[in-house]
Amino acid sequence: MKKFITIIKFPALKRFIIVLFLLTLFIFVSAISYVSAVSNNIANSVFRLHVIANSDSKEDQNLKYIVRDKLIEYMNNIAKDCSSKEEVISIAEDNISNFENIARKTIEENGYNYNVTLEIGNFDFPTKSYGDITLPAGSYDSLRVKIGKAEGQNWWCVMFPPLCFVDVTSGVVPDESKQEMKNSMPEEEYSLISKTDNSEINFKFKLIEFFENIKLMAKK
Q1: Is residue 9 assigned to a domain?
Q2: Over the stretch 185-199, which tens digit does the pLDDT of each residue have?
Q3: How far apart are CA 186 and CA 188, in angstroms?
Q4: For the whole model, what pTM was predicted?
């Protein structure tokens, strides 16, 4: 401690330490501001579907996918002409009882008597890839479906722009779906969520992911 006090008595070194501290603070604040702006722009451009199974049993997980397919099929029919997230959310809100009835009927038809609850709101999501599109962790508007005890694994997709029908095993999102997503958000944000070998873009994505994961952990 005495050595440190002796060192900072030198004016030049003292100025250097102050400048270094201010520079570090500036970079940190700038990073947080950037992450906040970009994360908000990405989140404001998409509406997601979140289905939670009753349990992790093979049967309950299979039921989750069946319910998912029925809900996506219905949503695709009623919102196929939508051109904005706001339109999709409005339609989903107007048809929330229909979504619930479809889910209940599907559960019953498959021999289960689980309760099901649906709600539209802003929920936390981990980083998730849809083919060659990756959305960073963060809070997103979504339709959340909880089956039974809702203690099983989650399933996520993007209802707008429509990525729910993407075959993630192929690793490629159809050009039409990517174009819709590109049209829904600023160029910088779209480049960040698209698969790329650009080291600068990848660094920025990791930066967003890092700060957003810290925010999510702080909520728990």
Answers
A1: no
A2: 888 888 888 877 778
A3: 6
A4: 0.79
